[in-house]
Design brief:
Elements: H1 2-24, H2 38-60, H3 64-78, H4 86-100, H5 102-117, H6 123-141, H7 144-154, H8 167-206, H9 214-228, H10 231-241
């Protein structure tokens, strides 16, 4: 009986404490779907879509593609395997891309990013300005033959000027042009190191040391040659001058 009375008092006390707590706490209400403009929602969705595609734009619509491919060719021509490491090459290519794209980046920031942050232009207008300046860079580097390839495939009539080429035609043509230029530079980088490998292989064969791999002997000489001619400066200068 005492246990029952104690249980009743505990329930009554908890109920009174809950009522007292409810009387002290402020009310909270959450409403969904009220006061939200559909246009603002679409603008936010478009902004997140652009941010998602930003890495692809950085890699494919700038000079990054040519730079990283040439640096990779340089590493393979020397024969140092994973030296410099991939992280270092990507970081170096990124900063070189910033150097080359500085005029375009400043124009985009001053004419698109700042006005958009100050709510002076809409999202569509800001994206149009960004596309205009990126097109200005790609138009100077793309080859007409690469653009004509996509018009030949689709059967559409080619425009009179490159400014009339749609962006979905221009970007893949620009990528092909960048890869072709990068491979041409890489071929020229391979020639001196290939000649050195052939000379070392001929000397080893003449000395009867056919069991010794020529790569093992030629690697120190290739490194020495690369350091003596200040190879990184020459390669970097060649890459930067190829955009002018």
């Amino acid at each position: 009986m005492k246990k029952l009375v104690t249980l009743i008092f505990m329930v009554l006390g908890a109920s009174a404490f809950g009522q007292n707590l409810n009387s002290q706490l402020p009310g909270l209400s959450v409403n969904f779907g009220q006061g939200t403009d559909l246009v603002d929602t679409m603008q936010v969705l478009a902004l997140f879509t652009v941010l998602t595609l930003a890495p692809a734009v950085l890699i494919l619509c700038t000079c990054f593609t040519r730079i990283i491919v040439v640096l990779s060719f340089m590493r393979q021509a020397i024969g140092t395997q994973n030296l410099p490491p991939n992280q270092l090459l990507v970081g170096f290519a990124l900063f070189l891309s910033i150097f080359v794209m500085k005029p375009t980046g400043e124009a985009i920031y001053n004419q698109a990013v700042q006005p958009y942050m100050k709510k002076q232009v809409t999202t569509t207008q800001a994206l149009s300005v960004i596309e205009f300046h990126l097109r200005g860079f790609m138009d100077k580097q793309v080859r007409k033959a690469d653009i004509a390839l996509f018009y030949d495939i689709t059967g559409d009539a080619a425009p009179q000027t490159i400014k009339d080429v749609p962006i979905h035609y221009l970007i893949p043509a620009f990528i092909i042009s960048e890869l072709k230029t990068a491979f041409q530079i890489g071929f020229l980088l391979y020639i001196p190191f290939l000649i050195l490998d052939m000379v070392v292989a001929s000397v080893l064969m003449a000395m009867g040391m056919m069991m010794l791999p020529p790569v093992v002997v030629s690697l120190p000489f290739k490194l020495l040659l690369f350091v003596l001619v200040d190879g990184w400066q020459l390669v970097t200068g060649s890459i930067l001058r190829s955009f002018h």
